[in-house]
Amino acid sequence: MSFQALYAISSQSMFTQDVRINLVAGNLANAEVAANSENAVFQSQDVVMTSTRVENSFGVMVSEIVKNNKPANVRYQPDHPLANDEGQVFYPAIDTVEQVAAMMSSARSFETAVSLFSTGRHMQDRVVDLINL
Fold first, then answer.
1. For 6-22, what is each residue's pLDDT tens digit?
2. What's this model's pTM, rounded to 2 decimal places?
3. 61 CB contacts (<8 Å, ≥6 apart)?
4. Is residue 58 within 8 Å of residue 52, measured between CB atoms?
5. 111 backbone φψ class: left, alpha, beta (φ>0; ψ -120 to 50)
6. How many domains, in total, are found in the chain?
7. Distance, CA of 15 to chain centre
8. Do the Cβ atoms of 68 and 43 come closer than 8 Å?
């Protein structure tokens, strides 16, 4: 594997995990945002990743960003300012534990890609040092 392929794989992975971390952060930030109807509720988003080929190796890339179509959580809160005529307030169907686990997984994957990039750079520097002996 060439250094270019190594850098391409690690940078694609860092980009993909960055997109995923940002979407998860948005999901967590909106997890308790109330709405007055089911149509107005925030829909969580997630990244669909696909494999990509770089030289003789495989990497990962963002294929698409999809919205969650789970029905909203309905709570009876007649005193809430956004309550409808029946006293219902709608909240996003976001599992915060699942989102935190996704963020931790994504952060670890990002760290692994950074480590791969750093190791490749260190190896390339060592090759240059050996050539200059």
1. 888 899 999 999 999 99
2. 0.83
3. 12, 15, 16, 49, 50, 51, 52
4. yes
5. alpha
6. 1
7. 10
8. yes
